[in-house]
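Entry 12.
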Amino acid sequence: MRVKTIKVNDKRTFFLWAAASLVCMAAIFFFSSQSAEESGGLSGSVVRWIMEPLWRWFAPAGAELPETLLFALEVVLRKCAHLFVFFVFGFCVANTVRQATGDIRRVFWVSLGWCSAYAAFDELHQLFVPGRSGMWLDWLIDTAGALLGIGLVFLILRRKGWGLSHVRRKRGFVSLDLLPLCSENELRRKGKLLLLCLIEILFAFSLAVIFTNRYLVLNWDTLNTAEILFHLSVPLRGAGADKVMLLFRDCVLPVALIMVLVNLLLFARYKKRVVASVRLPKKEIVWTLFPLRYSHFLIASALLLVCGVIMTNNNFDFRFVYRQLADPSTFIEENYVDPEDVSISFPAEKRNLIFIFVESLETTYLSKELGGALPVNLIPEVTQVMRDNVTFDREGIFWGAYDLTSSYTIASLVSQTSGLPLFAIPGNVSVRNGKFLPNASSLGKILEENGYTNTFMIGSDAAFAGRDIYFSTHGNYRVLDLMCARANGLIPRDYHVWWGFEDKILYEWAKEEALRLSEEPAPFNLTLLTVDSHFGGGYVCDLCIDEHADQYSNVISCASRQVSDFVKWAQQQTFFGDTTIIVAGDHTSMEPLYFDGLDSSYERKTIVTFINPAVLPINTDNRLFSLFDMFPSTLAALGADIPGNRLALGVNLFSGEPTIIEEFSRDIVVSELEKLSKFYNESFW
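Predicted 3D structure (tokens):
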């Protein structure tokens, strides 16, 4: 074979490409070292610089640029920046390695390994930067960008027709001779290999979309787009281990097995072929069905991706995002009452507060004659607590609070303690940077300003969904969670059941804490959040009785007994005379398939009851209310005077004022809350 040699200044070229690679690494490290606030500010300013002129040119006159659109574009810009920076990095690294080795295969694998390893280091580095977090999705995007950069080097070499043959040492440095890269058949083979890698990635991604849809639908009965967006924007530390295992079993494992099977079919050797033929007037079209070909793989990947997109659109209400972008609302602005503008006054003798958020406690568990939807009453103990205390009803049956858009725990906690909905999109950078609705007034802040000691107790990791950030920044709550229980020796350091530890332990711990707080001179607010009745079948503790046909019903009945026993214990304590207890469901249950047989006209609501309030309501009959109303009603139950009886979007239920649901109807309120509110974004985040 005739050798053609190209004269190359090896040392200088190598150092130029190596320097370029180091510059890329330094740039990546610099941008990753920025805090979430700095990084978000930079990307946000770039998006505004691009979008504002375009919006003025194309948008209707007077239309304002939606903040939600800016945030969505900011996310896209950040991912594209990941892809582009590592594309350049991969291109520089591949050229550096090309100058240092004569093995064409080594150029590819060494370059890809280098770039992928640095991408992993970059994500690990972000774990130690305030407000930032390492994400496997970003690592995949970085690696894909590097792969494209490396592929560009190979494409340039292919067009030149020259590549690397061997290496010889000269004066302690690598010197290269360039030979024809490979034969035409070899070039074609390498091109097919690169195409196959891209198809494999597309196929795996399409499968992941489909199986993730299946996983979410089977395990979350009421999951919506708002909840998905929120949980993608906050730290997921503290998620239940069972959900992680289910994710591996239902998503990761099937995708891996299908990928292995398809690749076996694709690369196995066969003696016979299976073909399909179509006879036309002038010719016959023959299509090989088996063994699989790259074209089959590509078509299957495209079809799976289309199916995944359709499934996602059917399972989750993407109209929510469209409504936010296309149809802004002033509903919150028009109906919001700023607590800072209301002169709330407390009595001289302040009452203590015990607020029990019971996971997924709803009226549906009652028997039909009591206002529920079941043939038997699963929660007779809670029913008795409701009968003996202040509960709002309608037409002689127990009623409850509509959760409206607050259908998951952190959203419910926010709504019941601040009278506001939780919108997911604006919270992305803020929550990761230790801020959670920083400009909103809340129950904890008001109580702290009036001398209360706030404590939040939970049987899981409070970091999940930013609950620790919300409570610690809204009233300086002392957060007692799974980590604290381990540190204090309440449970062994390796103890972990369900989401952390069971409600039985939480209630016993809460008794000790209530007794300790009652001995202090300051009034206290002790807030509990249970977890045993979480969806996924609930947790069967040693207090549960096998009295119903299914596990979840048994867990719900057990939760009813435990909360009733705690209330009875509190009523026997010396501090009870000056203490108000509130028992409330956090939201309606997400248990999959459990509610499939319900009458479609039945409206599910969370249970709410006030025990030993300072005042009695003017009217408990025929009230329609939501979780927002719990904010002012809790203060009123403590004896606080609220001029106007309105705070945020909530109304004091002990007054005769109409709630926003009674004034506008539930459907209108939900529809307006799902729209973009510029006032909400600018005022509270």
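Annotation: The chain has three domains: 1-182, 209-269+286-316, 331-488+527-551+573-642+670-684. The CA atoms of residues 460 and 500 lie 4 Å apart.
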